[in-house]
Write a structure and sequence with these properties.
CATH architecture of the largest domain: 2-Layer Sandwich
Largest sheet: 5 strands, parallel
Number of domains: 3
CATH topology of the largest domain: Aconitase, domain 3
Structural class: alpha/beta
Shape: globular
Number of strands: 18
Distance between the termini: 48 Å
Strand order of the largest sheet: 5-4-3-6-7
Radius of gyration: 21 Å
Helix content: 25-40%
Strand content: 15-25%
Oligomer: single chain
CATH class of the largest domain: Alpha Beta
CATH superfamily of the largest domain: Aconitase, domain 3
């Protein structure tokens, strides 16, 4: 019987099926951070339980961390307490912990892959919605709530209903200046933010096969923004090359054995999906959002749609445009911006900084623009320096900050002021996401770079 990639991985991890209920599902890797884990550990203590498999859990500090002067005590008392609590809990239960100052520290969904913790065919959870990132390796990865974090810590299992299956095929070759972030924002604009609710998505076709692992991670990261439980891409030579030699990846004969298994992780010919979509790469151009959810995105050459052209109702649409200070039928191109953010678990990897540098090289940052360039990890930070990217950035008038989630969400010091416009490479543009009253335009690293040097929304193809 023909089987999908998703079914192969899911079914291999079902410990027990509950009739008319969820599956008891085994978890191979559990990532934790300082925000969603403290209450889960308190729950363990109240029940007299310990962490069942500490070696399968990995802790890092990222959400509340400052991105400057990380060698100094954290000023915000709540953040400082959460960071200290994570460290204490990790030490008490024998969990690997990469806190501030540790060379392995960084955003949870960046450090997992770059250390080889994320592997094909595994199941991965974290108390963070963008855990879907790890699906780029052919893993089943999804975010969980605090009570579920406690469940996994205590039993290494979780109770989950099996999602439906969706496949999104994009064939052809992407155009000049079009990258993975544009692909993801295009898909969400077509399906809307609820179009994949209840589904696990497999991305298939020429476009994804041609992508780097960094690009695949960007696409899978944003699966959650169209309502999907997660997204995944079948592992291939690109995957194996990326993983080989990394710290936690298999070595020697274990590598050979793992590789033989990984090569079976693909959807069989004739396997059926509950829903399927087909797009052509030629349909996609550099994307920019204009509203207050990631589905409100358009190609840079297009105008903001009229209310009758979109779903969701006119009142909701008007409210969104009013918050953004935009109007129906306006062009996004040439709108003045105030902030640029390069980073997050969506676009904080070395490939993203290479793309940004390709635009700003030989140019200068616009005087009125505040730019936060935040690597996703210390490893990315070192690559930026080693490859000479830091020199390009500094020559153009930019500063590099230290790793962390930064301005992706308003949980640390990097907040966009009310009423200001930020071209952001992160994943959400909800009202107040980057600070109370802030206005977020989601875009690719190339689009962010173009805005940073011109001070306005600019088609990156004009500067490449």
């Amino acid at each position: 019987m023909s089987t999908t990639l998703f079914d192969k991985v899911w079914d291999a991890h079902v410990v027990r099926k509950i009739e008319d209920g969820p599956d008891v599902f085994f978890i191979d890797r559990h990532f934790i951070h300082e925000v969603t884990s403290p209450v889960a550990f308190l729950g363990l203590e109240s029940r007299g339980l310990t962490v069942k498999y500490p070696d399968k859990t990995f802790a890092t500090a990222d959400h509340n961390t400052p991105t400057i002067n990380q060698h100094l005590p954290v000023k915000d008392p709540l953040s400082a307490n959460q960071l200290a609590t994570l460290e204490r809990n990790a030490e008490k239960h024998g969990i690997i912990h990469w806190g501030l100052g540790n060379e392995h520290n960084g955003i949870v969904h960046v450090i997992g892959p770059e250390h080889g913790i994320t592997l094909p065919g595994t199941t991965i959870v974290c108390g963070d919605s963008h855990t879907s990132t790890h699906g780029a390796f052919g893993a089943i990865a999804f975010g969980i709530g605090t009570s579920e974090v406690e469940m996994v810590l205590s039993s290494q299992c979780i109770m989950q209903p099996k999602p439906k299956k969706m496949r999104i095929n994009i064939n052809g070759k992407l155009g000049f200046g079009v990258g993975p972030k544009d692909v993801a924002l295009f898909i969400i604009s077509q399906l809307t933010t609820s179009g994949a609710t209840g589904y696990f998505v497999e991305y298939s076709g020429d476009v994804f096969e041609q992508m780097s692992m960094e690009g695949r991670m960007t696409v899978c990261n944003l699966s959650i923004e169209m309502g999907a439980r997660g997204g995944m891409i079948a592992p291939d030579e690109t995957t194996y090359t990326y993983l080989k030699g990394r710290q936690f990846a298999p070595k020697g004969q274990d590598w050979d054995k793992a590789l033989a298994y990984w090569k079976t992780l693909k959807t069989d010919e004739g396997a059926e999906f509950d829903k399927e979509f087909n797009f052509e790469a030629s349909q996609i151009e550099p994307m920019i959002t204009f509203g207050t959810n990631p589905g409100m995105g358009i190609g840079i050459s297009k105008d903001i749609p009229l209310a009758q052209e979109v779903s969701g109702g006119k009142a909701t649409y008007d409210k969104s445009l009013d918050y953004m200070g935009f109007h129906e039928g306006e062009a996004m191109k040439n709108k003045k911006i105030d902030y640029v953010f390069l980073g997050s678990c969506t676009n904080g990897r070395i490939e993203d900084f290479r793309a940004f540098a390709s635009i700003v090289n030989g140019r200068k940052k616009a005087a009125h623009v505040t730019a936060w360039l935040v690597p996703g990890s210390h490893i990315v930070e070192q690559q930026i320096k080693k490859e000479g990217i830091l020199d390009i950035l500094e020559e153009a008038g930019f500063e590099l900050r230290q790793p962390g989630c930064s301005a992706c969400l308003a949980m640390n010091d990097d907040k966009v002021p009310a009423g200001k416009y930020a071209v952001s490479t992160s994943n959400r543009n909800f009202e107040g996401r980057q600070g109370p009253g802030s206005r977020t335009l989601l875009a690719s690293p190339l689009m962010a770079a173009a805005a940073a040097v011109t001070g306005k929304v600019t088609d990156p193809r004009d500067l490449l």
